[in-house]
Design brief:
about 260 residues; mainly alpha; Cytochrome Bc1 Complex, Chain D, domain 2; 2 domains; two-stranded antiparallel ribbon; globular
């Protein structure tokens, strides 16, 4: 009952192009927003490890190439931007809140790329909600991803500088997966106002190599994600991200949010 308590978005009817430039853009979105990280390098799908026993949780990222061909764009959009599966239930583990603000054009490009990808067969188990996860949902201690997606703050409408607008869009469709829905810290990860302590050159190295200030090359997940995802950002995208994130330091940190 809790998982089916979702708010359906208007049906997505944006056309899905098939030209090569759109597919290339979609591949860029998939690389930088993390599709390969959870769904496998060939989009074949992957299951979480260490999930033995029927009481244990088992997350399974489906075969995206097959999924994109099987379902229409509205079903895919509801999953990607709103955290609602094809069965009408809210997801438990896919961080749809990270892509809530993807534009229609970028989402269409992503779908175009996924549909163009060859289907590589993989023997995937069925997903399973563990006893702990069921308890958290039933007691209201944690929400499903559809609820999280609704909690994402809106993009600002008063960004006069186009570069800051581009940087905010990149950050709010990339960085809030780990750094809080508003980028100001959460999920035990730091406030991204810390970027103000980086020079632009240092930030570029962080994004491409996962190396922090002072040559720190063991930043845990950040080092892994930078090498696998952020290294694919263009020079202009990194410049735009830096311009936006480095200015967060002068803004107050919102309080009363569940992710901090």
């Amino acid at each position: 009952m809790k998982l089916r308590d979702v708010s359906y978005p208007p049906r997505f009817d944006f056309p899905i192009p098939t030209d090569s430039s759109t597919i290339e853009r979609g591949q860029h979105i998939a690389q930088t927003r993390g599709c390969f990280g959870c769904h496998g390098r060939q989009l074949q799908g992957e299951a979480s490890s260490g999930a033995s026993g029927w009481l244990k949780n088992r997350s399974v990222a489906p075969n995206l190439a097959a999924h994109a061909k099987q379902y229409d764009a509205a079903v895919l959009e509801a999953a990607i931007r709103h955290g609602i599966g094809q069965d009408g239930r809210g997801f438990w583990s896919m961080p749809a809140y990270n892509w809530t603000h993807l534009t229609d054009a970028d989402l269409a490009a992503l779908i175009a790329f996924l549909r163009s990808a060859p289907v590589v067969s993989a023997d995937l188990p069925s997903p399973r909600l563990g006893l702990r996860e069921r308890w958290l949902i039933a007691t209201g201690s944690e929400d499903h991803m559809a609820g999280w997606a609704l909690a994402v703050p809106p993009l600002r409408s008063d960004v006069a500088d186009p570069q800051l607008g581009r940087g905010e869009y990149l950050a709010m469709t990339t960085c809030n997966e780990c750094h809080g829905l508003d980028l100001r810290g959460g999920f035990v990860n730091p406030d991204l106002a810390v970027v103000a302590s980086y020079t632009e050159a240092d930030f570029r190295r962080l994004m491409s190599e996962g190396v922090g200030i002072g040559g720190r090359d063991s930043l845990g997940l950040m080092t892994e994600v930078a090498k696998g995802r952020f290294a694919h950002f263009t020079d202009q995208e990194v410049e735009d991200l830096y311009a936006f994130l480095s200015k967060l330091v002068v803004e107050p940190v919102p309080g009363g949010v569940f992710w901090r």
